[in-house]
Amino acid sequence: MQLLDRKQALSIPPVWRLGFRPFFLAGALFALLAVALWAAVLHGAPGLAVPGGMLAWHRHEMPFGFGLAIIAGFLLTAVQNWTGRPGLSGWPLISLFGVWLAARLAWFVPASLAVLIALQLAFIGLFIAQMARQLIAARQRNNYPILLVLSLLALCQALTLTGLALGDDNLQRRGALAALWLVAVLLSLIGGRVIPFFTQRGLGRVEAFATHPWLDRLLLACGVLVAALFASGHNLQGHPWLAAPFILLSVLHGLRLWRWHLRGIWGVPLLWSLHLGYAWLLVASLSMAAWHLGWLTHPSLASHALAVGAMGGLILAMMARVSLGHTGRALQPPKAMAWAFGLLNLGALIRVAAGSGWLWLAVVCWGAAFVLFAWYYAPMLCQARVDGHPG
């Protein structure tokens, strides 16, 4: 039976054998194209005819198109290790990916708004259902918080799409910003597990990092609270008392970074890229606190520190590391990836710290980073594992 299962697995084209393969590749290409298109519009190019306009498209697609694709690729692969049960592959994976792709294309195809909304919600609904089926069957209670955050993310998408349907810009902003901070919660949850583990392994450190469940639970609760404040509209106006949860988030993220830091990480691109990506969570939280206290003039600096620096940086670093491990390769990325990590962080810094006149350079840095990933990793993602394993 085991031989038969292996034979069946090997008969599946490599790109459809596990979730990370199609979603990492398509997500990286989408990140490149979507940001380039949005930047062209900001620089005066005529926008495409999409429901709600190009701002509504950009606002929705960065967390729910790009971010959710990579999250799905990572979790659909990780759940196999967590539960010991086979991950989604073959036609079920092709079907789920097809829904994601159709949802991206639906913005540009003349059709009813109801079709667009149905496709968007279908993808996240099917993804959550698959995760819940595997985690609940294996009684993986320690991973139930991930289901909670994914479910809240689905509610935020529904809120954003309701705003789109009603033509309510405020409702769209509330849903999209709440979703962005929920993505930050997922980055914190996943990063809290893998960054210390990858750091230990990458530096050949025998002693594992100490675990602090109270810190993880506090980060989860505080992150969900912040997202709820965005969804309710409270975080859209500056109030000094609302700086408190962001100050707490900053302290907790800073504590994690301090505990994980070892000098050796700066000589290993797969490590310093993860630590820098996580550091943008701290920058985003501090920036929101500063805005609520009246020290910053606009909260978009915090939003872009989170979207470009934290989400983009951690996603790129995680894809680079996970793709090597799950294709049976040594954990030595192509040398050009160090440039990709550096360019992405430089782009985030320019987007946050420089004026709008430098936006083009931030876009070039972002695009170059994902071009390098796609160029070097597409063959790995589309070919069988080098160790003969069917994954």
From TrEMBL:
Q: Which UniProt keywords apply?
A: Membrane, Transmembrane, Transmembrane helix
- Determine if Transmembrane helix is one of this entry's keywords: yes
Q: Which Pfam families match?
A: NnrS
User: Which residue ranges does UniProt annotate as crossing the membrane?
Assistant: 20-42, 62-79, 91-107, 113-132, 144-166, 178-198, 218-235, 241-258, 270-293, 305-324, 336-353, 359-378
Record's keyword annotation contains DNA damage: no
- Kindly list any coiled-coil regions of this protein: none
Protein name listed in UniProt = NnrS family protein
Q: Which source organism?
A: Pseudomonas berkeleyensis
